């Protein structure tokens, strides 16, 4: 019998009188929920399930993918947050949520039951059904996939000297959202190192970003967006806008240009067109769209008041515009706070409160020393925005991992 399973059985025997709270996922939303629930010292038996024994800062995967940072810089152990007196941690993969039976099926530990469930399972890459995208595009969704991009780029640059085929020095980034822009910022910072390491001609390197929409970074004012994009263009990035991707092969991206198809040759194709919520959500029979469930005002699910759905698998409607609030780490952290408060209310037979959210702003990095952003109504660009991005990262670390995470993983190079 699996050791984790034995621990679960022992805990069940010991704490039969306590309500069982199960948290699925140790990302921003899941860990923040755990941290706040533990802080309340509720009379509950908590189980945290995560496929890895570490938490990673998903908003900084682009740094690992570009080779700018090692994985350890954006990771810390889950056990640093777990209070063993209150919480059992199970490292396992969630297969399905059996919502009518109030159990969760795990790949290695079978079924575990719950009285209250917090679903914070995170995101997956979205291909939108584009031919060849899943097979030939390099996704950036976790530490292994980010490392795979870095390794792949290095391998292609090394092969150029063997073949002199310029497609080995060609990198295509599919999509021009936050992740794409931040990756382009970091990889352009890393090009001098790659040129020196592999002795390849800098003027032969080709960076192309292909985006279906006619505008870039629409969440920012036009002047800020122009500043950021101009910086990337100065560094050699070629943007193809209003160009829906038609097909991805192992060394070519085909896109629509007006009424005809054109293509770019590349041995490195990074797929960052968008994400969806975990496929576990659809597999479990929830009413979902792209892996996300529209939640009730208190972050529970219609018909299942014992299930909280947060983070990338939730859709929180903005009633003013009738659309979901864009998913961000900031939103996920705030959801974690509300889950802890509403769980306490339910346990005490009190009324839950509606989730409210007001964004404090957002910042997109363009490498280590440049960024653009809007923070509490103020617009920033260049170094000030870059420094603010690092302050935000440290705040996020504090909210999920506490002081220890900030001290060991914090961004303190504000002055470069």
TrEMBL record:
It comes from the Bacteria. GO terms for biological process: aerobic electron transport chain. InterPro entries: FAD/NAD-bd_sf, FAD/NAD-binding_dom, NADH-Q_oxidoreductase. This is NADH dehydrogenase. Keywords: FAD, Flavoprotein, Oxidoreductase. Belongs to the NADH dehydrogenase family. It comes from Pisciglobus halotolerans. Residues 20-336 form the FAD/NAD(P)-binding domain. The lineage of its organism: Bacteria, Bacillati, Bacillota, Bacilli, Lactobacillales. One of its GO terms (molecular function) is NAD(P)H dehydrogenase (quinone) activity. Its cofactor is FAD.
């Amino acid at each position: 019998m699996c050791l984790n399973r034995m621990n679960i059985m022992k805990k069940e025997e010991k704490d039969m009188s306590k309500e069982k709270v199960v948290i699925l996922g140790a990302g921003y939303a899941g860990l923040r929920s755990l941290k706040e629930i533990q802080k309340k010292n509720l009379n509950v038996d908590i189980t945290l399930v995560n496929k890895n024994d570490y938490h990673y800062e998903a908003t900084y995967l682009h740094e690992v993918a570009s080779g700018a940072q090692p994985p350890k810089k954006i990771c810390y152990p889950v056990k640093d947050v777990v209070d063993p007196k209150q919480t059992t941690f199970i490292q396992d993969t969630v297969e399905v949520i059996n919502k009518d039976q109030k159990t969760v099926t795990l790949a290695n530990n079978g079924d575990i039951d719950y009285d209250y469930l917090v679903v914070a399972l995170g995101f997956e890459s979205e291909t939108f059904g584009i031919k060849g995208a899943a097979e030939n595009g390099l996704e950036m969704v976790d530490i292994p996939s980010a490392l795979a991009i870095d390794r792949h780029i290095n391998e292609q640059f090394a092969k150029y000297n063997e073949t002199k085929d310029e497609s080995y020095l060609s990198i295509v980034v599919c999509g021009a959202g936050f992740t794409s822009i931040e990756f382009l910022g970091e990889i352009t910072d890393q090009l001098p190192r790659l040129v020196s390491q592999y002795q390849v001609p800098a003027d032969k390197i080709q960076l192309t970003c292909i985006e279906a929409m006619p505008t870039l970074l629409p969440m920012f004012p036009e002047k800020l967006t122009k500043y950021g994009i101009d910086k990337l263009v100065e560094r050699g990035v070629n943007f193809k806008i209003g160009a829906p991707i038609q097909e991805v092969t192992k060394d070519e991206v085909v896109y629509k240009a007006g009424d005809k198809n054109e293509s770019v040759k590349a041995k490195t194709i990074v797929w960052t067109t968008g994400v969806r919520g975990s496929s576990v959500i659809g597999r479990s029979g929830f009413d979902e769209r792209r892996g996300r469930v529209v939640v009730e005002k208190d972050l529970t699910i219609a018909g299942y008041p014992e299930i909280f759905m947060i983070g990338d698998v939730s859709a929180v409607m903005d009633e003013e515009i009738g659309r979901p609030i864009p998913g961000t780490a900031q939103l996920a952290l705030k959801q974690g706070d509300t889950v802890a408060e509403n769980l306490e209310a339910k346990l005490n037979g009190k009324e839950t409160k509606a989730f409210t959210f007001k964004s404090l702003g957002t910042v997109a990095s363009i490498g280590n020393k440049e960024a653009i952003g809007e923070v509490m109504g103020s617009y920033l660009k260049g170094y000030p925005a870059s420094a603010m991005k690092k302050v935000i990262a440290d705040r996020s670390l504090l909210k999920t991992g506490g002081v220890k995470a900030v001290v060991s993983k914090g961004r303190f190079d504000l002055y470069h």
